[in-house]
Amino acid sequence: MKPLLGLLLSLLCNSVCGQVVFPAGLQLDTLIYTNEPFMVIRYAAPEPFMLSRLDFTDDFRKRFNYETAPTGKKMDDTLQRQLSRKVCLESLFDQTDARVNRRMNFDRRYFQAKEILIDQIIENELYLPGMDSTLYASLNFTADYMGKEVSGTLYLKKVKAPYSFRWKIIDASVPFLHSQKDPEYVKTVLADTTLKYIRSNAHETNFLSLYSLLRSGTPLLKLTDESGVNNRALIALSKSIQTKQCVLDQFSVSIFIPVTDNWVVKLENFTRESENSGWLISDLYSELSGSQLPHLLRNYFPGLYQPLKPSSK
Amino acid sequence: MKNSLILFFLLLTGSAGFCQGPTIIGDSKTQADDDLDENALKDFNEHAKQKVEMFQNYLTIVADKTQPLEKRLAAQRQAEDLFIKGKDIFIEVSSKNSAKKTKYSVMDYLERVFNAQGYTQVKITFYDTCLISDWKKVGNGKYESVATIYQQFEGYFQGKLKYSDRTSKTVELDLDKMRDTNYDSSARATVLLGNITVEHTTAVKVN
Fold first, then answer.
1. What is the pTM of this model?
2. Contact yes or no for A38 and B120 at CB 8 A
3. Cβ contacts (< 8 Å) between B87 and chain A: which residues?
4. Which among A10, A41, A167 is the top mutation candidate for probing chain B, defined by the most B β-carbons within 10 Å of its own β-carbon?
5. Is the CB of residue B133 less than 8 Å from the CB of residue B109?
């Protein structure tokens, strides 16, 4: 009865004024909504988290270098008087990290290392140069390997190329594969001199370019640096991808940035809807922090676990 | 099946306006051999935002079954023209119900949006925040950047909310010279869209 009444009401109203007005509380059949547009577009002002989120690693660098505020605004003299560099630097850390929360899994060593790093950056007026020359990445992936879901990690380094930068694969951790030598395979891959590389564009942390290259049949081994062609884990992975035994699926990326010879910070992309989100520091590596850099990356930071030099000031 | 239908809508954003053809900006002084100065690159930020909005506009038309078929097909073609040609370009879709993200080619994606069913009404909120990262030089006269966009999607079936989420997406952007004889034979610069990826998808409460 109620739906029928609603329908009659809507027909009547539509024929008179084209507008439907219902008495409060009246349940109506959904059929009467036929004159509503299919597509309704609305516009809204950005929410604060959308402006303050560190969407790109460049955003991280600018806030680290005191060029932008945590609100996303460009720094000027007035803003710098209101907002210390320490506040900006602290906002670069993941604030949900239990290790810095006294009510959770507080880790005094990590907390103190964080404070020391911030103090050193301020005291020594440290700034990050263009990010491109000093980025390393670990790419955790899941894959279908002969019908089983497996996971592994690729390690990459950003290297300079004419006009731009590229990612080169430097190592891999693939526990589901047996590392192997295969000079014939390496020879075949190297015989093809077509230039293939993982683009490092502004969207440097997505690695869709890697996904596309592998999908189009490019051997993974062609995307490695010079030492990569002799890396047994990379040879095994490259072969298994080419023979379609292994199909890489989802990627999850971490970025490693050396701040000084003694400090490396790890960035992860926190995708929550909060002002503390985007590319934030999720770990610190130094003699003081207690965290261990992935062992396959340690050769690239020889001074990392050396005793700290006294501050210059 | 239901989930897949929901997925097709997840990239829909923008206004209901109907834009005509790709915009070409810049003048004949913009040569491929030249670097673009900071001001020129800032101009291209605006151009890039327009391109992203155009794509969003076309998508709303492609998906809108109440629009004339010819208009929807034209919007589908024009949306395709906004993308880089000759490369494998992916558009990623997601759902708040799954951590998995699925990649489609541009053509497949548009086809799926065109044929999508499952809702009697779609409401999209477009946030006025298209963030463009710094342009990076990647070749002679070639630059790349990324835009970040936010959108809220609500899908209704016969007046009842069936699915809603808020997503953040990144759109790769290529800035390159383009010779377009429709305008004149001189080299002009334009922005084309590349891969579109989902950064995150969250549930939203709808009043």
1. 0.77
2. yes
3. 212
4. A41
5. no
Q: Does A46 sit within 8 Å of B137, measured CB to CB?
A: no
Residue B207 lies in a domain: no
Q: Please indicate if any CB of chain B lies within 8 Å of the CB of A215.
A: yes
- Let me know if B130 is exposed, middle or buried by CB neighbors in 10 A (0-12, 13-18, 19+): buried
A138: CB partners within 8 A, 6+ apart: A153, A154, A155, A156, A253, A254, A256, A294, A297
Question: How far is B182 from chain A, CA to nearest CA, in Å?
Answer: 30
Please give the residue of chain A at the shortest CA–CA distance from B195.
Answer: A208
- Asked if residue A170 has pLDDT above 90, the reply is yes
* Interchain contact, B124 vs A41, CB within 8 Å: yes
What is the full per-residue pLDDT of chain B (207 aa) written as tens digits?
444 444 444 444 333 333 333 333 444 344 444 577 778 888 888 889 999 999 999 999 999 988 999 999 999 999 999 999 878 888 998 888 887 788 899 999 999 999 888 888 899 898 887 778 888 887 777 888 888 899 899 999 988 999 999 998 889 898 876 544 454 445 567 899 998 988 888 888 766
A33 to chain B: which residues are within 8 Å by CB? Answer: 120-121, 158-159
Dihedral sign computed on CA atoms, order A128, A133, A134, A135: positive
Nearest-Cα distance to chain B for A211, in Å, is: 10
> What amino acid occupies position A33?
Y
Interval A52-78: pLDDT, tens: 999 888 889 999 999 999 998 999 999
Three-state DSSP class for B69? helix
CA angle (A23 as vertex; A17, A27 as ends), nearest 5: 110
Q: 3-state DSSP call for residue A13?
A: helix
| Three-class DSSP category at A56 | coil
Q: Write down the domain spans for chain A.
A: 2-35, 48-127+261-300, 133-255
Asked if B120 and B157 touch (Cβ cutoff 8 Å), the reply is: yes
Cβ distance A43 to B126 less than 8 Å, yes or no, reads yes
Q: Is A268 helix (H, G, I), strand (E, B) or coil?
A: strand
What does the alpha-carbon distance between residue A223 and residue A196 come to, in Å, rounded to a whole number?
Answer: 7
pLDDT in tens, A90-125: 999 999 999 988 888 889 999 999 999 999 999 999
Q: Which of B167, B170, B99, B7 is nearest to A142 (CA)?
A: B99
Q: B15 lies in which domain range?
A: 2-202
Contacts of residue A31 in chain B, CB cutoff 8 Å? 158
> Has residue B83 been placed in a domain?
yes
B197, B169 Cβ separation under 8 angstroms:
yes
Number of compact structural domains in chain B: 1
**Cβ distance of A201 and B136 shorter than 8 Å:** yes
Residue B105 is part of a domain; what is its CATH number?
A: 3.10.450.50
Residue B186: what are its φ and ψ, rounded to 5°? -80, 160
